[in-house]
Every structure is written in structure tokens, then in C-alpha cells.
């Protein structure tokens, strides 16, 4: 961001609130404002002021909760990242501007710092609508999420024709899913001064050290269905993460976050407890060695698992 200094880590609010595609269904969480206020306060105290959400998370519930906290601080003290999801555009009269305005109202802001096209649907149809928002000053920077390299390049062409650019790319990226790296997306971003935001860096907790075959995810959520069947294959990797963590005074989750930062990306860490914020802040201060990074990636490849989810595609 030009006016606001970006922290090394963004905090994700996907699991906040309930409803369609909300925290209760995806994560098995039931978190409301009173649960989350201490988390927001701790984050701001630790200098973690970049918040990532989307209209589709709980169909506005996540933005509503985050907005109740954002109203308590100065606008210049927070960086807000939210998303336009083409698949639900019909709810807003097929208008990106209307969806963006509704987000602003829920979030209690006049201008969105980073506005994303959440999923690719028709790059040529939707990207031009970002230009109108940029010209109107409604958004400061724009990004694309879950787009492959050809779609990112096409979005950039459309924006550059009007004097703008893709400022950020947000894809699933973790030790278990490095397809954006293999596809050349990280390289393209680096060459074109585009910030790469990595979501699901800890695979919704599967790389946090909290879950294993003896301690599976509680049944009933999407992540339990996705990750419980592969926990046994992750044990060598998480054991190595724990070993590297001991050398740096980090937890398993912090090692996963530090690995992402070492790759030159900005991880989005979902926060549902104050300690998640404190973990993220500490992970941002540690640099892993090249040997440690190589060892982790080798073990990750050996797991032979795919963590591509139903809304995604492989990038390479």
C-alpha cells in the first residue's frame, strides 16, 4: 500500500460468524463479536493491522463482525482487504459496485484498501468493473484470487490499458500446495511488483501441530472431511516442523508461517484465539535457513497428498 505500511502477515476473518460459507460450516467454529473482540485488540497491539475478509464469508457475517471492530479505531490505522465473488453477483444485481458498497457499509469504511475478484468466472467480463471503482476512488488497489497465470496476465492487461495494474494475487499456498510456485505465478508476481497473498498456509489447522491421527478434527465440518483422512500422511512433516521449531523457539504453526514468509509471500493467518495473533507476530520475526526450507519441502512432497479444495483448481 502506498499510504499504509503493510505488515508481514495478514489476519483472516473467514472463520468469523456463521451462515453460508461461514465459520460454523467450514471450520466448525461458532464465533461471534464477544469472542473476537480480544483477538482484534491483541492484533492491533502487535502491529498486525491487515485484515482479510470477503462478502461471501457467512454472506456478510464476517464483514459485519470485523466492521464492528474497525469502527472503534481510526481508518488510517487498519488495512482492509475484502472480495467481490462473481458467483454471488446476482444477489447484488450483477453489479460489482453494489457489492463493494455493501461491503463498505458492513465494514464501516468509505474506501477499500485492497479489493479482489475472489474467483475467476469471466476475466474479461468482471475485470473492467475494477477500473470504475479505482477511478472513483472507492478502492485503492485491486487483486485477483484463485486465478491461474494466464488469467492474472489477462487481468493485468485489461487494467494496464487504463493506467492501473494488478497489485496483489491471493491463492492457496502452503507446504502441501505449492502449485502457484511451480506454475510461475510467484515469479511473475516478483517480476511485476505484485504482492502474493497466501491463504490456507496452515491448511486450516492440519499443519498447526494440533491435529493428528490420535487427535483428529471434530466431525461435522468441511475441514474434518477434507483433512482427517490424510492426517497419518502428514506426521513425518509435522514432526520435522516441531524439530525445526525447537531450534527457533517456535511452535509447529509458527514454522509453517515462517516458511511462507521465507518464500517471499504474505501469509493470511486465520485467527480465532488471542494466541493465534501472538503466534503470528512471533513467526514474522524469525528467518528459517535454506536447509530447513529444503528439508520441509522435501518431506511435504513425500506426503503425496492433494489439498486442492472444491472451489479451486491446480495452478500448474
From TrEMBL:
Query: Any coiled-coil ranges, and where?
Result: none
NADP-dependent oxidoreductase domain: residues covered: 8-300
User: Which keywords describe this protein according to UniProt?
Assistant: Oxidoreductase
Reply yes or no: does the keyword Oxidoreductase apply: yes
Q: Which GO terms describe its molecular function?
A: oxidoreductase activity
Q: Which SUPFAM superfamilies match?
A: NAD(P)-linked oxidoreductase
The cellular component terms of Gene Ontology attached to this UniProt record, alphabetical and capped at eight, are:
cytosol
Q: Does the keyword Hydrolase apply?
A: no
The protein, known as: Predicted oxidoreductase
Origin species: Selenomonas ruminantium
Lineage of origin: Bacteria, Bacillati, Bacillota, Negativicutes, Selenomonadales
